[in-house]
Amino acid sequence: MNRPEIVQRLPAPRRGPASLWWIGLLCACAALAACQGGDAPSQGGYGAISVQAVWPDAAAAQGALSQPMTAPASVNSLSAVVLNGGTTVATGGPWLKTANTGSIDNILAGGPYTVKLFGYASFDGSGSPIFQGGSTPVTVVAGQTTPTGTIAMFDSHGGLDPTFNAPNGFVLSVPAGMTTAAARRIRKQADGKVLIVGCSSPDITVSSCNSGGSANMQMTLWRFNDDGTPDNTFNGGTVQARNYITHPGLGAPAGGFDVVQDGGSGKIYVVGDSTSPSTPDATCPSAGEKCMTLWGFNANGSVDSSFFDLSTVGAGPGTREFMAQAGLAGSASGQAIVLAGTSLYVAGQSTDNTPTPATVMALWAYSISLKGLDIGLCSAPPACPSPQGFITGGLGPSPAGGNALAFIPGSPAKLVIVGFGLVTFQQMLLWRWPIGGTDFDTLDGVSQKFLFDAAGQASATGNSIFLDASGNYVIAGNAPSSGSQKLTVWRYVAGTTPVRDGAFAGGSGYFSYTSPAGASFGNWVMTDASGNIVVSGASGGPPSTSAIVLRLTTAGVPDTTFNPTNGGYFTHTASLAAGGFDRSPGGFVFDSTGRILLSGIALNSSNTGEQMALWRINP
Fold this sequence. Notes:
The chain is built from 2 helices and 42 strands. By secondary structure, it is mainly β. The strands form 10 sheets. Strands 1, 3, 4, 6, 7, 8 and 10 form a 7-stranded mixed sheet that branches. Strands 22, 23, 24, 25 and 26 form a 5-stranded antiparallel sheet that branches.
């Protein structure tokens, strides 16, 4: 019988009443005065644990998990494993699912223990579990049976959670009055609630919130509870029950690409871009030009009308809820944001039209307390372009752009930016800027102010960066191989001169995923509570593309326990349209139980417009 989660098998594990092999052994012991079923070992130091499975429905997903419900038809038996830390101390079952209950006897008094409960398609507990659940800690009392309380059963590792918007495992959302919507980033608030930023439009397409989207496209911000249900108090202070807000910034088209919350004040900050109107704004002086835009919102979704002081750029007096910046001499866009102290740092790209058009990586700093650009980003104003609080990767190749950044505490604190740039051909690029410094760090130990890597290929891009527990740079993106793009994960050992980690992915320092659907793209990466690397993105190509999630071990190889029935990766098309075209540029977060909340885009039923999509996946 396949027993998942067993870290150590004891020489003679004690089993529940469904396995009575030990009765004969005990009866043969002359030292025992009596032998009556499974009760003898419970005397003088042993007890039992009882379990009860519940199968949540839509109401349970709203937090109303209370009554036992009928198990799915696919489940026919249950079994349990009792753990003390990582060690298995007892097993129970299999039991038929009809009772939804069982008892594990002969457990040494003490604890705390945890119980893992598994549901199987087979009647005898053989094969791999298709549902699972876990208990809160349980202390066993000698001679007594201790209940675990109800254990909610969910899809096993790496599968959709059918209790989320049951039975779908995902939700689709378009704001009222809009026809299309898309998610570009998902983040967690300090209280566990989930923010999703992107865009929406009354028109047919929003092109993933990029500048080529609808002329009426607006930045859109949603908020969900930790369990993925809509937070209808996020209504901008109105009496409406809604969980989203929209804002055009300077003007449409406008899109949001990243979001962060100040856990202390509760204020929320969004970065993206918007378009200067026909009467140009003082901060974005060319009509029709796309400018980096930074919005400020209060905790309830209302605009923070004092967020930006216009006088800081000579356009005052007065304040407003957003700041816009044109960058160098052309358009600009903010792609990623981090909060450190009272400063917001934004990475993106800017176009310099002099002497010839060129796109460069751009980095902005904004002071929340001063309500304007933070001149402390660069300590030598002559070395910083005007306005101060803004620098570019001008020493790097052009075209180039920043797609993600991370904050590294220290003295000085540093920002590490990942994106793309042209070095013979397009490659993944990494820059590092010391806050308050005068220049980018030299990353090759000689003179080069950026690191480039194409994973042995050409046309690579870095889309996300995460610092693991050891401070390594874990980067997700894509690089081509055998004629198509492949989801790629790099790991660099941080230091004065970052180098690929020779202990990662068999020594290469990067992992490349070959999708059975063709091309694949990595858009977001994080490590889970166990240090495993989780990466999301997209797989396939038009007319059928799916959201995808993979999990790698700390050694950089696929974790085959994650969605084993699908080859070790999660993939799903939530589109209503036949064929579907789903993407997941929005990334993911972990909820309070370790489940994955994945954000992205799905097509509507007419195959003409996009919808914001949110999946929930069991770890």
